[in-house]
Amino acid sequence: MKNDSHVSERFQIGSRQIHFFMLALTLSALLLRMMIAYAAVHYYDLNYYIDWSSGVIQNLFGAYEHIKSLDYPPLFLFPLVITGKLMALPIVSEVPGFQMLVLKGWQILFDTAMIPLIYLVLYRESRLIAAAGAALWAVNPTIIMNSSYWGQTDSIMLFMLVLCFWLLIEQRPVESEIVIALACLMKFQSLYFVPVFALFLLSKFSWKKIAYSFLAAVMTGLTVLMPFMAHSGWTLPFRIYLGGFEQYQYASMNAFNYFAACGLNMKSSSHILLGGISAEAISFIMIIISVLLLGFFYFTSTEKSPWLLSFLFIQTIFMFTTRMHERYQIPAMLFALIACLHHRSRGLFLSYLGVTSITFLNHVLVLEHILTGRFIRFWAEHFDDICLMLSYVNLLLYMITFYFSVRLLYRYGYFSFAGAIKCILPERWRKYIPNLKNR
Fold first, then answer.
1. Helices (H), 59-104
2. Neighbours of 383 (CB within 10 A)
3. DSSP code of residue 44
4. Is the pLDDT score of 423 beyond 90?
5. CA pair distance 420, 430, nearest whole angstrom
């Protein structure tokens, strides 16, 4: 007993021990992801990266003119120059496993970089909480499958989104605006987070800082876009973003959401539903309702953060708008993880586990259905029925997560809407709003 007591007194978890743990965790996670990427040889969706990387080597800034399949915003094309040069090496071109490492390499690097970033975001809460969050992301099965097995670029976007919100919390609005601009130049889906970002930016900083931040974002966008516009015309941004939006006119693209529950998986978004209203019209209405609810929650709740509101907002967007891929629920999983630890909420932790489970199933079923063929898996011919059933499960999960989120938002009471707006206005404008007391 004395020896045990002596050992326990000597063993302490300080910053040095945590740093060693984070280093070991990050390196182990990187090795695990590289092993999976090397072993999982397939070219589904990766063929696009092969074409794009070989095309940007020939002419980077003219890529949109000579690469017909290119439908990404331009930021991803810069690292693809390195990818293309590596793919041209004989040792890579002759070994399929090395091809996989190169084609999935950027995704794996940003996915791994998310581990220390989560620690950085949460370390002020507690070193142990921050390390726990980082560890949970390191072994999260959905993101490992997404980045290392499939090779999708969602991890790059997620890293930028978390970084921009963390910079905003750290009172660095200019840097934060630059990063969210880069995120929007990386993937179209980053635009879904602009309303949450705008609410925190506009309400937390002076108009001068907001103006500087907006100017920085515009300059960032022009710096990246202008060389491409010089080759492809000033309408290029409209062609990239609007063209990408119009390319996939499906109600649901293997996403377990409301429209898949209505039997509209891989069917046109113009399909008529309730009361003669099309799926696209319902989606538009739900976007408006989601933004209004976001504003209401922001101005009336007493316990809020960009992590919690982003989780609630993107969950709603995923579940009730059209053109959703199965991958688009991954941001909800990430923000649920950070929010549950930031707010110390068991309900949100259960939400994180639930979203992780459903997104993992969504990835596994879609990939198995596509990569192994219709007749190899006994359940493949029932994929549509499985998709319908799990969409109902996801709708139930959404209602549970919505309950936990709203309960957390108002666990310390609520503010009057007008009074909350009044607090963020300049002093000279406040007299025009009635003086309503906080409740």
1. 63-66, 77-87, 90-93, 96-103
2. 18
3. T
4. no
5. 11
What's the N-to-C CA distance of the chain in angstroms?
55
Q: Which residues are within 8 A (CB) of 184 and not within 5 positions of it... i.e. 6 or more apart? A: 73, 190, 191, 194, 221
The mean predicted confidence, pLDDT, of the chain is: 90
Q: Find, among 339, 328, 310, 275, the residue nearest to 133 by Cα.
A: 339
Query: What are the angstrom distances between the C-alpha of 114 and each of 30, 164, 197, 343?
Result: 11, 13, 19, 20
* Segment 360-382, tens digit of pLDDT: 999 999 988 887 765 556 677 78
Q: Which amino acid is at 392?
A: Y
Distance, in Å, from the CA atom of 355 to the CA atom of 337, rounded to the nearest integer, reads 10
Place of tokens 């982003």: 310
Note whether 237 and 185 are within 8 A (CB): no
Among residues 298, 333, 332, 315, the alpha carbon closest in space to that of 409 is found at 298
Can you say how many angstroms the Cα of residue 371 is from the centroid of all Cα atoms in its chain? Answer: 24
For 216, the token pair is 């920085």
d(CA 250, CA 265): 8
Greater model confidence, 9 or 328: 328
- pLDDT of 7 > 50? The answer is no
At 27, list the tokens.
């390196």
C-beta separation of 264 from 279 below 8 A: yes
> Which burial class, exposed, middle or buried, applies to 174 when counting CB atoms under 10 A from its CB (0-12, 13-18, 19+)?
middle
Q: Which two tokens stand for residue 428?
A: 């000279």
Is the Cβ–Cβ distance between 153 and 107 less than 8 Å? yes
Separation of alpha carbons 53 and 383, rounded Å: 33
Cα separation, 322 vs 279, whole angstroms = 7
Round to whole Å and give the CA distance between 332 and 330.
Answer: 5
If one counts every other C-beta atom within 10 angstroms of the C-beta of residue 142, the result is 23
Which residues are CB-contacts of 71 (< 8 A; sequence separation ≥ 6)? Answer: 240, 243, 244, 247
C-alpha–C-alpha distance, residues 190 and 183, integer Å:
6
Distance CA 353, CA 342 (A): 16
CB-count burial class (<10 Å; 0-12, 13-18, 19+) for 363: buried
One-letter amino acid for residue 418 of the chain: A
Instruction: Tell me if 252 sits within 8 A of 322, measured CB to CB.
Output: yes
Helix (H, G, I), strand (E, B) or coil at 110: helix
